[in-house]
């Protein structure tokens, strides 16, 4: 029996690290996942253990390359991209992979904006709200001024997906989906690094830019040629299956901890209003901008659901099974209009509703979903208005909530609203990006299962 042609994708999240093998129809034929314990940096802040991560990749890749059942034709990577790996001239890492959630020094932040422009100006020009270490360019700036001895040894600064590719290809590169994702590095108007990058001479540490669909031929075991991709930022990778599957303009609402609305069909610059409301730009793997808005819906839903369940002495799991009831929705809409407050919610927000006003827990739950949908509509409309979008696809946790989906469809009556089911979308996206390099078949027509709502 001949070995099955496959592509190997390393999907590296902050929590789970996965290796998946896909056949030529992008069906999973092998999957292995691990959780790697974090270590701490020099300040005691939790961070990724790069040594364990390197072993995870090398050990698991060796196993599949030596497996008789598979013929690995290509390898690619998708990973969270808001952190830099700094390497010296020998390719050795110089620092921990600093956690992008680590608080940024206030004095250094003030120094940056005093030198290079106001936060508002920089944010508009780089399509990046001021987010501290979540702006990876600010990490590089911090290294220059807080650790100059280390900074002077840096040969290249690589975003995590490109560092993982470097481990196999030996080629240090930059890639647009990582550079263009809230890094404060990229000037979206000039289509080049922002002027502050040149003023600080950091451009010398950023390797040449390569497109997300490019590959390097790597020889393994002295004889086996494999196409190695450049790696992709995970949010941009998850969008690729939709881009290759649908020709009509669409927006994708990816739900989970964050509900992120992605509009690949809006090329206009971000406005001040959009930036003030947590909008930003990504760059998709073909190099064009993707406008995005964010709403911290997951934690708000979970906290408020727990309050309802506790008040009515119910299990939170009860509500996962509820079907949509038009009569209940109409009653709650009439008697208890949603709050429609700001969608800038945080875990410190206290529930302001008096739950005694509801006849039962189901009505309280409908009211909660109505309020979540009202806020989601406000967030989504920030990147929707004025664009030729005809479809709204929803994936992630809320796509399985029938009440949410029906109410969302009612909130956007001019759009075709569909729940989208696609397991491993981020990993498949990384495979599709280099499809041309390893797979002679056309893109599968059934990558995404859609369930329409009205």
Share of helical residues: 25-40%
Oligomer: single chain
The number of helical elements comes to 16
Largest sheet: 7 strands, mixed
Q: Structural class of the helix and strand makeup?
A: alpha/beta
Task: Return the CATH architecture of the largest domain.
Answer: 2-Layer Sandwich
End-to-end distance, in Å? 49 Å
What's the domain count?
2
Assigned CATH superfamily of the largest domain: ATPase, nucleotide binding domain
Radius of gyration over alpha carbons? 23 Å
Note poorly predicted spans: 345-350
Tell me the β content: 15-25%
Give average pLDDT, whole number: 92
- CATH top level of the largest domain? Alpha Beta
Global morphology: globular
Q: Summed up, what is this model?
A:
This protein is of the alpha/beta class and 454 residues long.
What distinguishing features does this structure have?
alpha/beta, 22 strands, Nucleotidyltransferase, domain 5, 16 helices, single chain, 7-stranded mixed sheet
Describe the protein in words.
- Keywords: Kinase, Transferase.
- GO terms for molecular function: kinase activity.
- It comes from Mucilaginibacter roseus.
- Belongs to the FGGY kinase family.
- The protein contains 16 helices and 22 strands.
- It is an alpha/beta fold and about 450 residues long.
- The chain folds into two domains: about 5-230, 2-Layer Sandwich (Nucleotidyltransferase, domain 5), CATH 3.30.420; about 235-454, ATPase, nucleotide binding domain (Nucleotidyltransferase, domain 5, 2-Layer Sandwich), CATH 3.30.420.
- Strands 1, 2, 3, 6, 13, 14 and 15 form a seven-stranded mixed beta sheet that branches.
- β10 (about 185) and β11 (about 190-195) form a beta hairpin.
- The longest helix has 21 residues, at about 360-380.
- The radius of gyration is 23 Å and the shape is globular.
- The N and C termini lie far apart (about 50 Å).
- Residues about 345-350 have low confidence and may be disordered.
């Amino acid at each position: 029996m001949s070995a099955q042609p496959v592509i190997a994708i390393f999907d590296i999240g902050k929590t789970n690290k996965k290796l998946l093998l896909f056949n030529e129809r992008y069906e999973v034929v092998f999957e292995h996942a691990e959780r790697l314990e974090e270590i701490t940096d020099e300040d005691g802040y939790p961070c990724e253990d790069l040594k364990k991560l390197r072993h995870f990749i090398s050990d698991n890749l060796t196993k599949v390359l030596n497996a008789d059942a598979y013929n690995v034709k290509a390898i690619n990577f998708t990973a969270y991209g808001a952190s830099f790996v700094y390497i010296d001239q020998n390719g050795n890492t110089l620092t921990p992979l600093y956690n992008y959630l680590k608080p940024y020094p206030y004095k250094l932040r003030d120094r940056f904006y005093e030198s290079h422009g106001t936060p508002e100006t920089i944010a508009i020009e780089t399509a990046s709200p001021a987010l501290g270490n979540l702006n990876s360019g600010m990490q590089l700036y911090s290294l220059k001024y807080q650790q100059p001895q280390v900074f002077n040894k840096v040969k290249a600064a690589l975003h995590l997906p490109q560092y993982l590719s470097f481990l196999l290809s030996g080629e240090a590169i930059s890639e647009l989906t990582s550079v263009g994702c809230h890094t404060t590095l990229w000037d979206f108007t000039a289509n080049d690094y922002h002027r502050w990058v040149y003023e600080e001479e950091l451009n010398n540490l950023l390797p040449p830019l390569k497109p997300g669909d490019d590959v390097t031929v790597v020889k393994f075991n002295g004889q086996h040629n494999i196409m190695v991709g450049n790696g992709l930022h995970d949010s941009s990778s998850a969008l690729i299956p939709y881009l290759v599957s649908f020709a009509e303009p669409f927006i994708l609402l990816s739900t989970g901890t964050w509900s992120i609305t992605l509009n690949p069909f809006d090329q206009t610059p971000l406005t001040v209003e959009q930036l003030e409301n947590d909008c930003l730009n990504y760059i998709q793997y073909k190099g064009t901008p993707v406008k995005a808005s964010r709403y911290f819906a997951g934690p708000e839903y979970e906290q408020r659901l727990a309050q309802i369940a506790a008040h009515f002495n119910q299990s939170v799991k009860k509500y996962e099974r509820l079907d949509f009831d038009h009569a209940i929705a109409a009653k709650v809409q009439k008697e208890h209009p949603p709050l429609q407050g700001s969608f800038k919610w945080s875990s410190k927000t206290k529930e302001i509703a008096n739950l005694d006003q509801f006849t039962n827990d189901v009505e309280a739950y409908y009211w909660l979903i109505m309020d979540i949908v009202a806020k989601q509509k406000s967030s989504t409309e920030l990147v929707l208005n004025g664009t030729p979008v005809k479809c709204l696809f929803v994936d992630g946790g809320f796509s399985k909530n029938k009440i949410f989906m029906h109410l969302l469809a009612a909130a956007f009556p001019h759009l075709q609203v569909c729940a989208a089911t696609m397991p491993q979308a981020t990993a498949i996206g990384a495979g599709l990006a280099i499809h041309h390099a390893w797979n002679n078949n056309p893109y599968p027509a059934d990558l995404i299962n859609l369930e329409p709502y009205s």
